[in-house]
From TrEMBL:
Residues 585-612 form a coiled coil. Keywords: ATP-binding, Chaperone, Coiled coil, Nucleotide-binding. It holds the Pfam family HSP70. This is Heat shock cognate 70 kDa protein-like. The keyword Nucleotide-binding applies. Belongs to the heat shock protein 70 family. One of its GO terms (molecular function) is ATP binding.
Length: 1138
C-alpha cells in the first residue's frame, strides 16, 4: 500500500564499491550527481587529523592515508568477526579490524588524533547520509525516506543492519529490496508495453562485493520473482584481490620482498589492479606501472586477459552455478528464459559474458539498461510507487518478491522444520500446530532459523509460558510465521485452549546492534555532521578571504588594477591586504565569524578602487584582430581610420618607421623579411619548442634564440638590426588597437578583456598578458576565443528572452592559425562551459599552405623553376591563395593570376572547389576529430546539441560546413552572429559586465569557465599527479595529502606542471614551491597538504602545508615560467614610447 509523504522519497543503491541515489521526478527517474558531477560515489569514508571525508575525496587520498580510509564496509554488516569471510578480507584491507562486543567486527581508525572504534553500520550510515545530502541539494527539499537496495543473499540480520545504518543517518528506510529485483523493476519499466505475453527474465547481478541471480516473470506491469540465488563473497573486489595476491607474489619473486605488511603499497597496488581489470574488459592486456611501490623499488608488470581469467575462473564458475541453482529452484529450463539482463560493473568482464552466452545456447545478452545505474533506477521507481506517485507508468506496476532463504524452527532432534520455504512469494503467512514433548510441560520454546540447514543463521529464541499441565502431545500450540512486504519476519505462538498468546519480531532482536547502540550512534552521527558543517564553513570563509586577498595584491602590485591610482593609495591598499594575509596565517583556528568580518573590512578598502573609464574586448587573432566596446546599450565593433573592423595582425619595419595592421600587410610582398605576422603563435614558447620549430620553416622573417632559450624576432629598423620578443611585436598590434579604441571613444582606454586561442597554455596566456601590459592595457580577464563567441551568442539569446531552457551549444571557431571548439550550456543568462578543445596549426593559414604547395609544384612542372627559395614570390603566391580561398567559398572555381612571379615569368592557373577540398580534406577531418574529442570530454552526445555556432573566417568554407552538418545529422549550422566579429563582441560584453557598465541583461549573465589543461605536480620518477583535470569548472580548489620520500627529510619540493602527458617532461613546467623546516620523522609520516586553488579569473595559487608543525609555503603561478618582470615590462614600454 502506498504511504503518504510530504517530502520526496528517494532510491539508494548502497553498493560495496560505489553508491548512488535517484528520484522519480517529472515523469522519469533522475540519477542525481554529487558535487563533483559524478552519478556514482565511491563507498569510502576517511578520517584525518582535521576532518572526515566521504566518497571521491576519501578515495582520492586513500593511498596517502590507507589505515584511516575505510571501504567495503557492507561486506562486514551482520557478520561476526570470527566468520571466515571476514578473516579473509581483513588480511587484504589496510585498515584495522578487531573483534568487538559479541564478536562483532569493529573498525579501528584515528580521527583528530584520537583512536575510535566504529561498527560497519556507522560507516554505512555516513555514506547514506551523504547520499541524502546529495539528493536534498539537488531537489532543494528535505528527503523523508528511501528505498535501499541490498544483495539478494543478505540475511535478516544484514538487512536489519542496513536499516540501522539508515536510522543512524537520520533516514527513514521505507523498504529494503534485493538488488536484482530492483534492476528488474528498471528493466520492466524500460520494456513496459513491449510484452503482450508473459516473459521470463533472468537478472544477473555481479557487483563490487556480491553476486546475485534472480528469475522473474514480467507481464502487463506485474513483476513476479520466481527464484533468487546469491553469493555474498563474489564480486569485483574479490577479482581485484585475486589479482592483488598474484602481483604480491610476483613482487616477492622478483625482489625477494613481501609487501603484504605495507598498507600504502597494498592500497596503491590495489588501485592499479582495479584499473587493470577495467582495461582488460576492452583490451587483451593491461600494464601495471607503479613508482616506488615498496622501499623505493619501482614495479612494472603486464597481465593478459587470459591470465586474469585463469586467476578467477573458479569464481566465474561459481557465478554460473548460481544461475543453474536459480533456474533449478524456479523449476524453469534455460530454454524458457527470454532475456538475460546484465547488472553491475563486473558484468562487463568478457569471460563472464561469454560463459552466460554459452550457458544460454548463444542467446544475446540484454544490455539495454545501464549496469551501473539499474539498481538505483529500480529503487527510485519503487520509492515512487510506495510514496503514492500518481504517474500511470509506475502506479500500475506490481512487484511480487520472494523470501531469499527458508525460514523455520528447531524441533526435537535438532532437525529444522521449514515453515516458509525459500523463494516463497511475499507477503506470506504460514502456521502449523505443535505440542509439548513432555508431561506437564509449562512452557514451549522454539529456536528460529534462516537457511537451508539446521546450522544456518540463528535468528532468535521464543518462549510461550503458562501452559496448563497436561500429558505430552495434548496442548495444541499454533505457531505462525509471517513475512510482510518489507521482507522481515514476525512470529507468534498461541495456545488456543486458554487464549494464551505471545509474539516475536526478528526486527526487534537486533542481531547486530542494540537499541542503545543505535541511539548512541545517532548522537555521534550528529556530532560528525556538526564537525563537517563547521569545517566546511571555515574552509569556505578562509578560501574566500585568501583568494580575494592574493588576487587583489597581485593585481595592484603588477600594475594590472587601476594603474592610474596614486602611489600612496596603492601602498595603503597593499599594506591592508598584507595585514589580512598575515592575520589569516597567524589565526589558523579562528572562528568563521571573525574570518567573515575580516573579509568585509578588506572589501571596504578595495572598494575605493572601482573600475573607471571605458573598457574594451579584444579578439587577439593570429591573422586578424578586432576590438569592441559597449556603447548605448549595445556592442560596437570599432573600425580603424580606413573603415576596416578587422586589423591584420601584422607589424612591418622600414628604414624610417614602424607599420601596424593594413599598412604593414600591404607592403609584406615587397619587404617580407621585415614584415612580422602571427607573433601570437610565438608567445610563451621556447626556441626549442616543437611547434615553434615547425612554424619557423614557413615564416619569411628571421627568428633566433635569445636569453633563457626565448625566441627573438630579428628585424632591421632604421638601419639597425634589432632582436624583439614576440611580446613586444604583439604589444605593437595591441597598442594600435588601443589607439583605435581611444580615438573612437574619445578617451584613454586602459582596461580590456582579451580573447586568445583555447589551445593556449598558462605560459602563453601570461605572455599575452605581458604583451597587453607593454601596450598600456590593464587586463581584466583572458578568455578563450570560442568562449567569447559563446557569450556573444548567449547574450543574443538572453536579450531576446529565448534562453529559458537549457541550450547545448557547440562553438566551432576556425580562424587563421588555430581551431577552437567549445561545448557549452546556455540557460537564462548562464553560460556554462562543459569542455573546450584547441588545436594549433589547424586554421586558414594551414589551408592556404596546402594551396601554396600545390601551385609551387604546378609552377615547377610548367616552367621547370623552383620558387621555394624566393621569399617574395612565395609571399605574393600566398596572398593570391588567400584570395582564391575566399572566392571558393562562393564560387566553384577561382583564378590565380600573378605578373612576373619569378624570373620574369607570369603565372596563371585556376583551381576548382573540388580540388581545393581534395588538398585539404585531411585537415577538414582533423577538425571533425577535434569536434568529437570535445563532445567526448564534455560527455555530451551529438544528438543533444541544439545549436552549432560558426566562428572564424575559415568556417565559411562550404565543405567544412557540409561535414559539420552531416556529423550533426543534418542540423543547420547557426549563422546568426558574424563569424569575424563574434569573439570581439563576446569579449566586449564580458568587459562591460566586469566594469559594471552594461544593462541588466548583461549584468545578470554568468560565465562558468573551465581549465583548458590539466594541472598537477611531479612525483618521483617524473610522473605527473593531476590535481585539477582539464575542463574543470572554475573557480575550484583541490587538496591532496602527500608525504616525505625518505627518513628525516627536511624540505618538500612541489614542481607544478600543466598538460595531459603522464610524464612531466612532456608537459609545461610552471614553477616550483619548496616547503622547508619539516621536523625529523620517518619516511611517509609527515602529512603535507598540497592545495591547488584557481579563482574565477583563472589565477592559480599553489600551497603546501604541514599542519602538525604549522609550516606553510605558497606560490603564485600567474607570473609563470618565462613571464617578464615589472622592470622588463617598464623597459619595453619606455623603449617603444620613445
Amino acid at each position: 500500500m502506498a504511504q503518504m509523504f510530504d517530502e520526496p522519497v528517494v532510491g539508494i543503491d548502497l553498493g560495496t564499491t560505489h553508491s548512488s541515489v535517484g528520484v522519480w521526478r517529472n515523469g522519469h527517474v533522475e540519477i542525481i550527481p554529487n558535487d563533483q558531477g559524478n552519478k556514482r560515489m565511491p563507498s569510502y569514508v576517511a578520517f584525518t587529523d582535521t576532518r572526515r571525508l566521504i566518497g571521491d575525496a576519501a578515495k582520492n587520498q586513500a593511498a596517502m592515508n590507507p589505515t584511516n580510509t575505510v571501504f567495503g564496509a557492507k561486506l562486514l554488516v551482520g557478520k561476526r568477526f570470527s566468520d571466515q569471510s571476514v578473516l579473509t578480507d581483513a588480511v587484504l584491507w589496510p585498515f584495522k579490524i578487531v573483534a568487538g562486543p559479541r564478536d562483532r567486527p569493529t573498525i579501528v581508525i584515528n580521527y583528530k588524533g584520537e583512536e575510535k572504534r566504529l561498527f560497519p553500520e556507522e560507516i554505512l550510515s555516513m555514506i547514506l547520509a551523504r547520499m541524502m545530502e546529495t539528493a536534498e541539494a539537488h531537489l532543494g527539499a528535505t528527503v523523508e525516506g528511501a528505498v535501499v537496495t541490498v544483495p539478494a543473499c543478505f540475511n535478516h540480520f544484514q538487512r536489519q543492519a542496513i536499516k540501522d545504518a539508515g536510522q543512524i543517518a537520520g533516514l527513514k528506510t521505507v523498504r529494503i529490496i534485493s538488488e536484482p529485483t530492483s534492476a528488474a523493476i528498471a528493466y520492466g519499466l524500460d520494456k513496459k508495453g513491449s510484452f503482450a505475453d508473459e516473459r521470463h527474465v533472468l537478472v544477473f547481478n555481479l557487483g563490487g562485493g556480491t553476486s546475485d541471480v534472480s528469475l522473474l516473470s514480467i507481464m502487463s506491469g506485474i513483476l513476479a520473482v520466481k527464484a533468487t540465488a546469491g553469493n555474498a563473497h563474489i564480486g569485483g573486489e574479490v577479482f581485484d584481490n585475486r589479482m592483488l595476491r598474484h602481483f604480491i607474489q610476483e613482487f616477492k619473486r622478483k625482489h625477494n620482498k613481501d609487501i603484504s605488511g605495507n598498507p600504502r603499497a597494498l592500497r596503491r597496488l590495489k588501485t592499479a589492479c582495479e584499473s587493470a581489470k577495467r582495461t582488460l574488459s576492452s583490451s587483451t592486456s593491461a600494464s601495471i606501472d607503479i613508482d616506488s611501490l615498496h622501499e623505493e623499488i619501482d614495479f612494472q608488470s603486464v597481465i593478459t586477459r587470459s591470465r586474469f581469467e585463469e586467476l578467477n575462473m573458479d569464481l566465474f564458475g561459481k557465478c554460473m552455478e548460481l544461475v543453474e541453482k536459480c533456474l533449478r529452484d524456479a523449476k524453469i529450463d534455460r530454454s524458457v528464459v527470454d532475456d538475460v539482463v546484465l547488472v553491475g560493473g563486473s558484468t562487463r568482464i568478457p569471460m563472464v559474458q561469454q560463459l552466460l552466452r554459452e550457458f544460454f545456447d548463444g542467446k544475446e545478452l540484454c544490455k539495454s539498461i545501464n549496469p551501473d545505474e539499474a539498481m538505483v533506477y529500480g529503487a527510485a521507481v519503487q520509492a515512487a510507487i510506495l510514496s503514492g506517485e500518481c504517474n500511470e507508468n509506475v502506479q500500475d506496476m506490481l512487484l511480487l518478491d520472494v523470501t531469499p532463504f527458508s525460514l523455520g524452527l528447531d524441533t526435537a532432534g535438532g532437525v529444522m522444520t521449514v515453515m516458509i520455504p525459500k523463494n516463497t512469494p511475499i507477503p506470506i503467512c504460514k502456521e502449523q500446530v505443535f505440542s509439548t514433548s513432555s508431561d506437564n510441560q509449562e512452557s514451549f520454546v522454539i529456536s528460529i532459523y534462516e537457511g537451508e540447514r539446521r546450522s544456518n543463521n540463528f535468528l532468535g529464541r521464543f518462549e510461550l509460558s503458562g501452559i496448563p499441565q497436561a500429558p505430552k502431545g495434548i496442548p495444541q500450540i499454533t505457531v505462525r510465521f509471517s513475512v510482510y512486504a518489507d521482507g522481515f519476519l514476525y512470529v507468534s505462538m498461541e495456545d488456543k485452549t486458554i487464549s494464551n498468546k505471545a509474539t516475536f519480531s526478528v526486527v526487534d532482536q537486533r542481531g547486530t546492534l542494540s537499541r542503545e547502540d543505535v541511539e548512541r550512534m545517532v548522537r555521534n552521527a550528529e556530532r560528525y555532521r556538526v564537525d563537517d558543517d563547521e569545517y566546511k564553513r571555515k574552509v569556505v570563509a578562509r578560501n574566500a578571504l585568501e583568494t580575494y586577498a592574493y588576487r587583489m595584491k597581485s593585481a595592484i602590485e603588477d600594475n594590472m588594477y587601476h594603474p592610474e591610482l596614486p602611489p600612496t593609495v596603492r601602498r595603503t591598499s597593499v599594506n591592508a591586504i598584507c595585514r589580512a594575509i598575515e592575520w589569516l596565517e597567524m589565526n589558523q583556528l579562528t572562528e568563521v565569524d571573525e574570518i567573515e568580518q575580516k573579509m568585509k573590512e578588506l572589501e571596504r578598502i578595495i572598494e575605493t578602487m572601482r573600475v573607471m573609464g571605458p573598457v574594451v574586448g579584444v579578439d587577439f587573432g593570429t591573422s586578424y584582430s578586432s576590438v569592441g566596446v559597449w556603447h548605448n546599450d549595445h556592442v560596437e565593433i570599432i573600425a580603424d581610420e580606413q573603415g576596416e573592423r578587422r586589423i591584420p595582425s601584422y607589424v612591418a619595419f622600414t628604414g624610417t618607421r614602424c607599420l601596424v595592421g593594413d599598412a604593414a600587410k600591404r607592403q609584406g610582398t615587397i619587404n617580407p623579411i621585415i614584415t612580422v605576422f602571427g607573433p601570437e603563435l610565438l608567445l610563451g614558447r621556447r626556441f626549442s619548442h616543437t611547434s615553434a620549430q615547425s612554424q619557423r620553416k614557413l615564416w619569411p622573417f628571421k627568428v633566433v634564440t635569445g636569453p633563457s632559450g626565448r625566441q627573438l624576432i630579428a628585424v632591421n629598423y632604421k638601419g639597425e638590426e634589432k632582436h624583439l620578443h614576440p611580446e613586444e611585436i604583439s604589444s605593437m598590434i595591441l597598442a594600435g588597437i588601443r589607439d583605435i579604441a581611444g580615438a573612437h571613444t574619445g578617451s584613454t582606454v586602459n582596461n580590456t578583456v582579451i580573447a586568445v586561442p583555447a589551445s593556449f597554455d598558462r605560459s602563453q596566456r601570461i605572455a599575452a598578458r605581458d604583451a597587453a601590459r607593454i601596450a598600456g592595457f590593464n587586463v581584466m580577464r583572458i578568455i578563450n576565443g570560442s568562449v567569447a563567441a559563446a557569450i556573444a551568442y548567449g547574450y543574443s539569446l538572453h536579450r531576446k528572452g529565448t534562453d529559458l531552457g537549457p541550450n547545448n551549444v557547440l562553438v566551432f571557431d576556425l580562424g587563421g592559425n588555430t581551431l577552437d571548439v567549445s561545448v557549452l550550456t546556455i540557460e537564462e543568462g548562464v553560460v556554462e562551459v562543459k569542455a573546450t578543445k584547441g588545436e594549433n596549426h589547424l586554421g586558414g593559414d594551414d589551408i592556404d599552405n596546402r594551396m601554396v604547395d600545390h601551385f609551387v609544384r604546378e609552377f615547377e612542372s610548367k616552367h621547370n623553376k623552383n620558387i621555394r627559395g624566393n621569399i617574395k614570390a612565395l609571399r605574393r603566391l600566398r596572398n593570391a591563395c588567400e584570395s582564391a580561398k575566399r572566392t571558393l567559398s562562393l564560387a566553384s572555381r577561382a583564378t590565380v593570376l600573378i605578373d612576373f612571379l619569378y624570373e620574369g615569368v607570369d603565372f596563371f592557373s585556376t583551381i576548382t572547389r573540388a580540388k581545393f577540398e581534395e588538398l585539404n580534406m585531411e585537415l577538414f577531418m582533423k577538425c571533425m576529430d577535434v569536434v568529437e574529442k570535445c563532445l567526448n570530454d564534455a560527455e555530451v552526445n551529438k544528438s543533444s546539441i541544439d545549436d552549432v555556432v560558426l566562428v572564424g573566417g575559415s568556417s565559411r568554407i562550404p565543405r567544412m560546413q557540409q561535414l559539420l552538418q552531416e556529423y550533426f545529422d543534418g542540423k543547420e549550422p547557426c549563422r546568426s552572429i558574424n563569424p569575424d566579429e563574434a569573439v570581439a563582441y563576446g569579449a566586449a560584453v564580458l568587459a562591460a559586465q566586469l566594469a559594471g557598465e552594461a544593462d541588466e541583461k548583461v549584468q545578470d549573465m554568468l560565465l562558468l569557465d573551465v581549465t583548458p589543461l590539466s594541472l598537477g605536480l611531479e612525483n618521483p620518477g617524473g610522473i605527473m599527479t593531476v590535481m585539477i583535470p582539464r575542463n574543470t569548472t572554475i573557480p575550484t580548489k583541490k587538496e591532496q595529502v602527500f608525504s616525505t620520500h625518505y627518513d628525516n627529510q627536511e624540505s618538500f619540493s612541489v614542481k607544478v606542471y600543466e598538460g595531459e602527458s603522464v610524464r612531466t617532461r612532456d608537459n609545461d613546467f610552471l614553477g616550483e614551491l619548496v616547503l622547508s623546516g619539516i621536523p625529523p620523522a620517518p619516511m611517509g609520516l609527515p602529512q603535507i597538504h598540497i592545495c591547488f586553488d584557481i579563482d574565477a579569473v583563472g589565477n592559480l595559487h599553489v600551497s603546501a602545508e604541514l599542519k602538525s608543525a604549522k609550516k606553510r609555503a605558497k606560490i603564485n603561478m600567474n607570473d609563470g615560467r618565462g613571464g617578464f618582470s615589472d622592470e622588463e615590462i617598464q623597459r619595453m614600454i619606455r623603449a617603444w614610447s620613445a
